[in-house]
Amino acid sequence: MFVSTPILHADLDAFYASVEQRDDPTLRGRPVIVGGGVVLAASYEAKAFGIRTAMGGAKARRLCPHAIVVPPRMSAYSVASKAVFEVFRDTTPLVEGISIDEAFLDVGGLHKIVGAPELIARRLRAQVLAEVGLPITVGVARTKFLAKVASGVAKPDGLLVVPADGELEFLHPLPVERLWGVGKVTAAKLHNLGIRTVGEVAALGETDLVLILGKAAGRHLHALAHNRDPRPVQVGRRRRSIGSQRALGRRERTPEDLDVILASLIDGVTRRLRDAHRACRTVVLRLRFADFTRATRSHTVIHPTSDTALLLSAARQLLTAALPEIAERGITLLGVSLTNLGNEDTIQLMLPFDDHTPGALDATLDRLKDRFGSSSVTRAALLGHDPGISVPLLPD
């Protein structure tokens, strides 16, 4: 028996590493790590040794000394992602992308045209493999939450359909960590009370969960444990922020080091902002200190903009103000996000209207980088410096 209003959660397997293995046959079947300083992705062969995303590169190499470390190729991943999303949209117009490598698809209206949800999912998986050359896992259920859980259980390179009359039977034996919002801290609280499965969470009343976890988290987990998730697939949903960050490790960083990294981050996110035909008003600086605590600082400009120089100036003001705290506490991560996004037509026009405006310079540099690569044009301040690998933040 298939679900009556089916939602597919399609999730590419070890995406960055899979692209590398696709493009270099010598990497297939071998442990592959993308990124040296910090693991951006690991193949399933590498994951078998305990290597995980965001792990330090040195630790990853200790766990698997024979792993092959490759530098990230963000442009290749972007091209692959766009090709996969074309397959999604060929399957159904109701697609909600939630990251570069996963999406929800509403296939509820396709039963009479195409067939049952399992058939649709099998065709989608075969088409992604044939046209893009990548493995993809699909979960099918009546709610977005359960479809995502199903794909997680089915990984790697699998398909799992949760029947409408077997939802709780499937969900309740799973560990509490399968619930959205249950991280290490929440899991530890539940484990300390002897609660280890979703079914045991469901057996608690909402009032008890609120007392244990707080009002918002308690209500949230009570609903999910009973598979209550009314959210529809949202088509055309646009991200609320564009961001990137870099893990810095433990060594001391000078203000000049941090400025180089910040400039590189701003160059990347403003280029993505313009590629998306967006403008922003607020720059957010993200910091993680050596004691693992985090902080954010923000600055809002008067008019929406996509101008690199203006947004870098705002970010530098935030960094300068944070330097005393950084000197005292140390820093292990620096990131920036552009928020309060609007369409590019909200940008305040500048006089004179000629090719000497900052926007014209940004557009020219974007075209050069598109044609010759991101490193073809760089700031003089970055020469002789290693800005490191910046990791795009997931959209809000």
TrEMBL record:
Annotated cofactor note: Binds 2 magnesium ions per subunit.
Keywords for the protein's UniProt record, in alphabetical order: Cytoplasm, DNA damage, DNA repair, DNA replication, DNA-binding, DNA-directed DNA polymerase, Magnesium, Metal-binding, Mutator protein, Nucleotidyltransferase, Transferase
Membrane-spanning residues: none
Domain UmuC: 7-183
GO cellular component terms given for this protein: cytosol
Catalytic activity field: DNA(n) + a 2'-deoxyribonucleoside 5'-triphosphate = DNA(n+1) + diphosphate
Predominant place of localization: cytoplasm
Enzyme Commission code: 2.7.7.7
Subunit note: Monomer.
Protein name: DNA polymerase IV
